[in-house]
Design goal:
This protein is mostly helical. The chain has helices spanning about 1-10, 20-35, 45-60, 65-80, 85-90, 100-115, 115-120, 125-135, 140-160, 170-185, 195-205, 215-230, 235-255, 270-280, 290-310, 310-325, 330-340, 355-365, 370-385, 390-405, 410, 435-455, 460, 465-470, 480-485. The longest helix has 21 residues, at about 435-455. The chain is elongated.
């Protein structure tokens, strides 16, 4: 590694203006530095390499080029051997006006992400230099600062989670963190620039568990509406905001340091806002495991789960009340949330079993495709946890069979949609032939799951299922019934 580094250092003299592939050189140097033995990583040699890298970074105002990012990678690699040396080089550019400051902040953010256990004990030195600058940062650079703060806080959480590490913050660091928290909350989140607001909320989402409980409580009336507003934006923005909201609720409701900072009544506006968003982000795409919509859906459900862990009965009654509303998005959201939470709050919700079954029965005749889809999925979850028996179980099975009986001819005939069973002007969600095909697939899969994985359903399915598929309107489900029998 030393020979490689020496050769690369020689080649790099004159920088990117004299040598075309500086990015490649710096990446090779970064790999060589990481491969160095501790004994070979002499401080003065590393300092010389660090100065070559920083010289390249400060030579241009544009950080978004390959060779500068490669130089940053080299500095992070140097930091893994000698964090104090690397940070000394970075700190040289913190005093006085310099266009290189955002680049240096990004390097510290990358270093924190890569070497959390080495970075966190040095966070105090970083904040000492950043705090005097923060108040004068303009909107254009605020996202860079906010992203760095986010990464530093994430590193602190990794440090705290490491069993061999002690508490990373003394009183000075706590004071610094509280000051940064207040600035982001009261100034940056009020920016007209969406990028500034979003990056600030993302940073605050990592800080909420690190500041004092009194400061967090006083921040809730301001920070919650800001996060909820961003949750309503497009999926990229909504995912980030929902993740931060999840962290906020977790710190506010489930902290080991004391009782919940919010009463359930105070959470109503949060839950009412999130329910329709749950229905919007439900995805049935087979590739949805990589979709931002599904990730957003999961974060929203984490918010409900945290609330349910703090207030299980209150949340259950809230969701049941929304199932009785006339708003389709709220009903679909409530059904999807019950499906998600039931296995996780099974013991807490045991006394609400009868109410849950009655709600499902009351919705079986609803004509909204979205509601039917959500019901079909919920029925399978309820059956798998023995919530359905007797007549209610037969009604649920008939519901699944009825939609499994949709034939290919039905799906190829546009007149299918004119059937009064598929008409409902009260709801905005439109029925489509593709949607009916999706509903049929969900119900067929649900029936197979009932037959194969839930032994308790055998007494309900047989011979009831055979009697059920005899009427003409259900004969389309015969193939599914035969699969279940086999």
């Amino acid at each position: 590694p030393l020979l490689v580094l020496d050769c690369c250092a020689t080649v790099s003299r004159g920088g990117h203006r004299r040598f075309g592939n500086m990015a490649g050189v710096f990446l090779v140097m970064a790999s060589a530095v990481r491969a160095l033995d501790r004994l070979d990583a002499e401080r003065e040699f590393l300092r010389k390499i660090a100065k070559i890298a920083t010289a390249e970074i400060v030579s241009s105002k544009d950080f978004n080029v390959d060779w500068q990012r490669a130089a940053a990678t080299l500095l992070v690699a140097i930091g893994s051997h000698d964090p104090d040396l690397m940070m000394e080089e970075i700190f040289l550019y913190f005093s006085g006006p310099t266009s290189a400051l955002p680049a240096m902040l990004q390097i510290l953010a990358d270093f924190a992400s890569a070497e959390a256990l080495q970075f966190t004990p040095r966070l105090k030195d970083v904040l000492l230099r950043v705090l005097p600058i923060l108040g004068s940062v303009r909107d254009g650079q605020r996202p860079v600062f906010a992203n760095a703060l986010k990464c530093w806080c994430q590193a602190a959480w990794v440090y705290i989670g490491d069993a061999s590490s002690g508490l990373p913050f003394d009183d000075d660091v706590m004071s610094f963190m509280n000051s940064v928290f207040e600035l982001l909350l009261k100034v940056w989140t009020g920016s007209r620039d969406l990028k500034v607001r979003l990056s600030s909320v993302e940073a605050l989402g990592e800080m909420v568990g690190l500041v004092t409980r009194s400061q967090l409580k006083s921040a809730l009336p301001r920070i919650i509406p800001t996060m909820l507003d961003l949750c309503k934006k497009d999926q990229e923005v909504a995912f980030t905001a929902a993740h931060s909201l999840h962290n906020l609720l977790n710190a506010s409701l489930l902290s080991e340091s004391g009782p919940p900072l919010l009463e359930f009544e105070e959470l109503a506006v949060v839950l009412i806002t999130l329910l329709p968003l749950v229905s919007v982000n439900i995805s049935k795409d087979e590739r949805s495991y990589i979709s931002k919509g599904l990730k957003t859906y999961n974060e929203l459900q984490h918010c409900f789960l945290v609330t349910g862990l703090a207030y299980p009965e209150d949340l259950c009654m809230f969701l049941l009340s929304k199932c009785r509303s006339k708003d389709e998005a709220s009903i679909v959201g409530a059904l999807g949330t019950i499906k998600h939470l039931l296995p996780r709050l099974l013991e807490s919700w045991h006394t609400k079993q009868t109410l849950l079954v009655e709600i499902v029965k009351s919705l079986l005749e609803e004509q909204s495709l979205g509601i039917r889809m959500a019901l079909a999925e919920l029925i399978v979850v309820m059956a798998s946890h023995c919530y359905l028996s007797g007549h209610s179980a037969e009604l649920a099975v008939e519901f699944l069979v009825g939609h499994s009986a949709i034939t290919d001819d039905d799906l190829n005939d546009i007149n299918t949609l004119k059937n009064e069973y598929f008409q409902d002007k009260r709801f905005e969600m439109k029925i489509s032939l593709a949607g009916l095909s999706e509903l049929r697939a969900v119900c067929e899969k649900g029936l197979l799951l009932l037959a194969i994985t839930i032994p308790e359903m055998e007494l309900v399915l047989w011979p009831f299922l055979l009697q059920l598929i005899i009427p003409k309107k259900y004969t389309g489900a015969v193939a599914t019934g035969l699969q279940m029998h086999n």
